[in-house]
Design brief:
Helix content of chain A: over 70%
Structural class of chain C: alpha+beta
Distance between the termini of chain C: 17 Å
Helix content of chain C: 10-25%
Shape of chain C: globular
Oligomer: heteropentamer
Bound molecules: adenosine-5'-triphosphate, magnesium ion
Number of helices of chain A: 11
Largest sheet of chain A: none
Distance between the termini of chain A: 46 Å
Chains: A mainly alpha (225), C alpha+beta (370), E alpha/beta (233)
Shape of chain A: globular
Largest interface: C-D, 73 and 74 residues
Amino acid sequence: MNSADLSALGLTFRLAATTTVVLFLLGTPLAWWLSTTRSRLRPVIEALTALPLVLPPTVLGFYLLLLLSPRSPLGGFWLELTDASLTFSFSGLLIASVLYSLPFMVQPLQAAFEAVGRAPMEAAATLRAAPLDAFFSVALPLSLRGVLTAGVLTFAHTVGEFGVVLMVGGNIPGRTRVISIAVYEHVETLRYADAHRLSAVLLVFSFSVLFAVYTLNRKLPLNVR
Amino acid sequence: MNSADLSALGLTFRLAATTTVVLFLLGTPLAWWLSTTRSRLRPVIEALTALPLVLPPTVLGFYLLLLLSPRSPLGGFWLELTDASLTFSFSGLLIASVLYSLPFMVQPLQAAFEAVGRAPMEAAATLRAAPLDAFFSVALPLSLRGVLTAGVLTFAHTVGEFGVVLMVGGNIPGRTRVISIAVYEHVETLRYADAHRLSAVLLVFSFSVLFAVYTLNRKLPLNVR
Amino acid sequence: MCADSLHVDVELRFGSFSLRLDEHFPTEGITGIWGPSGSGKSSLLRSISGLERRARGRIAWGDELWLDSASRIFVPAHRRDVAYMFQDARLFPHLSVEGNLRFAERRAPSKGRSISFEDAVEALELGPLLSRRTTDLSGGEQQRVSLGRTLLTRPRLLLLDEPLAALDSSRRFEILRFIEALHAGFGLPMLYVSHSFEEIALLADEVLELEAGAVRSHGTAAVSFAGGARLQDASLSVLAAEVSRVDARWHLAWLEVAGQEISVPHPASFQEGDGVRLLVRARDVSLATSRPVEVSIRNVLTGRVRSVEEEQDSAFAEVTVALDGPSDAPRPLLRARITRASLHELELEEGHEVYCLLKTVSVDRALAHG
Amino acid sequence: MCADSLHVDVELRFGSFSLRLDEHFPTEGITGIWGPSGSGKSSLLRSISGLERRARGRIAWGDELWLDSASRIFVPAHRRDVAYMFQDARLFPHLSVEGNLRFAERRAPSKGRSISFEDAVEALELGPLLSRRTTDLSGGEQQRVSLGRTLLTRPRLLLLDEPLAALDSSRRFEILRFIEALHAGFGLPMLYVSHSFEEIALLADEVLELEAGAVRSHGTAAVSFAGGARLQDASLSVLAAEVSRVDARWHLAWLEVAGQEISVPHPASFQEGDGVRLLVRARDVSLATSRPVEVSIRNVLTGRVRSVEEEQDSAFAEVTVALDGPSDAPRPLLRARITRASLHELELEEGHEVYCLLKTVSVDRALAHG
Amino acid sequence: GPSPAVAEQALVAVAANFTTVAEQLVEDFESSVQHSVALTTGSTGKLYAQLRHGAPYDVFLAADQERPRLLVESGLVADGGLFTYARGRLVLWGADLPAAPDWDSALEIGEARRIALANPELAPYGAAARSALEAGGHWRRLQAKLVFGENVGQAFSMVASGSAQLGLLARSSVVAFGGPSGHLVPESLHQPIRQDAVLLRRAQGNAAARAFFEYLKSPAAQRRLLESGYELP
Ligand SMILES: Nc1ncnc2c1ncn2[C@@H]1O[C@H](COP(=O)(O)OP(=O)(O)OP(=O)(O)O)[C@@H](O)[C@H]1O
Ligand SMILES: Nc1ncnc2c1ncn2[C@@H]1O[C@H](COP(=O)(O)OP(=O)(O)OP(=O)(O)O)[C@@H](O)[C@H]1O
Ligand SMILES: [Mg+2]
Ligand SMILES: [Mg+2]
């Protein structure tokens, strides 16, 4: 494994971790809203959150390029603001990954929140817990399994994704070149041995992370707080 | 939209539907086992089911190509059996899609099954329901939200996926050319107008399906059976 | 009175059921809520606690409006300063027993206002359970933890929905005493739902009886029981009395009732001069036409038959007796349930003089507190 | 007897708690299970039903082995043909009330063996609830549905875990009668857990009392109650009696007890010649040293004081009286709870002749059935 | 050509950047004979990997010479089934291309934030672009501005979307897209971008495949190539 691959690996996990965190921040309120609202908009939003999946990644990437390019209002605004282009930057990658992995975050979270049901939230309210407090101290801990699923799917998917990332990121070594592109290149250029090696590293590393997560999940101590 | 695109669209939905069904058949027992077992193997299997995600689709496709090609034991066996090659056929596509979408089926199902808990299953047992009966008449209906999530993620992901499918299927018009590849091709070959049109069709169609599913989900009548 | 009361004027509909009432509850005493299953007791508590958003109307705690559908006021549950113990325990499964208790305590105002963590644990015998998972607890254990959690909320109003239903009778009795002490010590008002006559009789200052969502009766326990009211099948009488002397040797307290004297086992809390009330079940009262002698029943009150009610197709009759007493005061009434056979043998009729034998004066407590 | 009994010889440990017993239960009667909260009642039912896989030991229904840890036999719950009504209702939230009932009925053997759907709905008044969501039901409604669902399983053994705890007393009484009729009609054996003295007394042929996981007492209801056994605080006596005549005018049944006669309200089911049993609470018994006259208490039994037990630091004493009767038969014992003051006033001592006044003979039922 | 007795079918695998032209060629071809030809597209690397694993392609129009050579070596190619069918040209192109006499000076004066090219590791156009930049002495200076598409088509999309302001792209893409034609990069600055076609051994008996393979060498086909921005080999 050469240093370029190493830096791609680092970038990948940085991207996956950041995407997961950002999606937790964005997806959790959305999922909670979806699980509690009686709005008629609800099935519309539910359907919309699944849509990023049905477009092929490269195509989604293409549209994101259009959306984020300096010529677009959003990209232009960003350019003025930061003097940096959204496309071909880590920020752009992040936006793309977040959008593309949105369903993996929102759907399991929503399912988990719905399973919590009304009863514990009512109990929390009568114990003086304000809604936000009740959410963090009751709903979220009771949805732990869903949170885990959402996190794992988002993280793993971001690690493996490369269509969107390639298109929006521009494969700039050290900046937007993630590991999935590197493996892909090895395969394309017939360097199969390199591809095998890199795939193995990726698999072993991911397996270790996931295994640790799942083992920990079993052993969670009973919370006294 | 030309007839080639139409046939690709048809093939896509056939593939997505078949993948979803096959994954329900395979993923449900696996998820149920994972949610009930106390085996030490459990975190290992849990981590393994998430792994197909971390490999870039094309790379996964490449390995599947190696695995399924007529020169491999599995592909060779299949060739002897059916006199048809697994690669570049619908069967091959199906195997690839099933493998790649496995996490989207197993993880939400497992989370939902775990949320059902012991109490209703014990009640079912005291009402003479044998385990399989109890599973279908109690656990599964109580996991409906998780089943929905699993189905939607699997279906949508199969519709949008193209890396694996392109590699294993070979993009043969009418046989293995799915809609995602068609859109991809339009973008790759700079026929942006065609790409926009096809993407719009794909989005509108998928949205309608998802919207219908989510609306129905709200309106499920109380079951008397 | 209005400023000091909880005013509940609500309507709540579920399909064919509707709860409709306009009542004032005291902000000091304990109100027992009584009524058959499905009569709307839990729905009433849910409305008061702020969990039932479908309730229309007006709920006010003194001057403080909690609900006013007309002006779209709705104070959410967590800001009403009301604690609600659910009929099902609703413990948090992700927290240990201690975690559940601490959950309430951490969000409660300072200790001064009600009991401390240690007191609750001690009184409810939760010590050995503290580190346990809530999902493994027995039914009664769950209920005790849930009660403890509710008490530790230290609210200004306590809503208890059959808090002792899963407990054995001796523990139930202990916890009842504890609840009563809590009430006396902190002046904490309560609405107390129960199917148990004894619990209501022991605790409640007022009783609200619901039936099919409507109020069947509501009044002070004395009025509600004595005026011939019958809590379902439990016909009983409530008599005001005063502790006249305490007999330490036999552990008895002598009470003056309408100028006559009876004795009851002496609870430690009774002082000479205390006003108390007696609850006497009609079925614990026998009648005689001459003063009985050489019998272990020592509590005998004299009076005159006010009315006789024979029950159709039954062995029983109910006799209401106006007790003798100072001629200027209204005569207290005592109900007796005897067999129709006895009624005819004794030839009891309106106006006859009778001796009422009280075998068990099962419940009694201080009338005024604070 | 062994072939006709349910033999339970199990040990079950949870941390510091352990349930350990080796008992035979009749396969015909109703066994009441009684004990403080946390004493292991539910754990016992769970072990018998096959839900508790951690139970070690041996459970056999006649010749049929349900559990034998030694030979690794474990028959799973759904094949034991046992119905279990949980302490919490555990209705299926995805099914309507009718759906829940049908769930049981569809998997049950043919109607012959127990009640029909319609009978259960009628007896438990479930008609108006049939199409309702189970999550919206009141506590008592849930319990009734759960009971209905359990009965419709039509098992050969019924395990009921506080089935009536959430019900009001009049409904509770009706349902008790229904359960009793079911038992009489189909010979369905039951283990019945309850904290309510009245329920146990009314239903049970045998009583098993648990304490901290161990058997404190186990015997027929008569022995268990009469031999001076005290179910927690409820001291009582059980007397065997026979219906000697029925008095339609006053709705009374005359019973012969140890050669003496008393009368009780006449339940429709009593026939002349029936063997019945009387349960008399000690606190409902007064004593007199001469036969009382002109008093509504008509049930007076004579006897001699067998023993006197004064309670320390209390107003009460318990007096055990050996009733007079035919000299060849063993003397039935009757316990009376009177104040110590009365005891001394009446100068009661061992061997004295006394008259026992029974105000209320609250519970009674046919001794033998089938 | 000779009119065959039986109409047959051929499956032709085409490198993505040649797809548009290939479609036109197929249209021309099908109007002159009774055979039919189906196209499948992909990256050259992917199509190669698939052919190595039994893909049912009859003709392979690659975007380079490397993969066809490897196929010949592995014995999958029919005898005489290899020839160079086109030569690609590189242009400097962008939405607002600075007015300059040639690509060199356009690059000098241009204020592009981003310049897109195909991945030099993967695509011949990428490799050529890199050589040209190095030869022109721009590589060092511009390196920080470079972004890479998986292939030259993706690089074009990056420019077409406005995300990149300039790109070193295939002239065929620019022709297909229409609009201004850009600055041609002299072929002397890079290895010629030769694209080889292969007739697979499995298609030796397929009249349609053979006919199409031969048709690629015909003057009609060559006219098409020239129109589409390619040079003749
Ligand atoms: N959310 C709801 N939707 C429909 N009906 C409801 C709902 N909640 C309660 N009900 C009905 O309203 C009536 C009153 O219910 P409530 O729970 O207040 O009764 P309760 O007096 O507490 O009875 P119990 O003593 O059995 O607990 C019941 O018939 C119940 O079925
Ligand atoms: N799974 C378990 N793990 C640990 N302890 C348990 C578990 N189940 C029950 N216990 C403990 O075993 C004891 C007996 O429980 P059980 O439920 O049998 O009591 P019970 O007699 O039914 O009480 P109740 O009348 O309160 O329902 C209790 O102290 C309980 O906390
Ligand atoms: Mg209720
Ligand atoms: Mg229990």
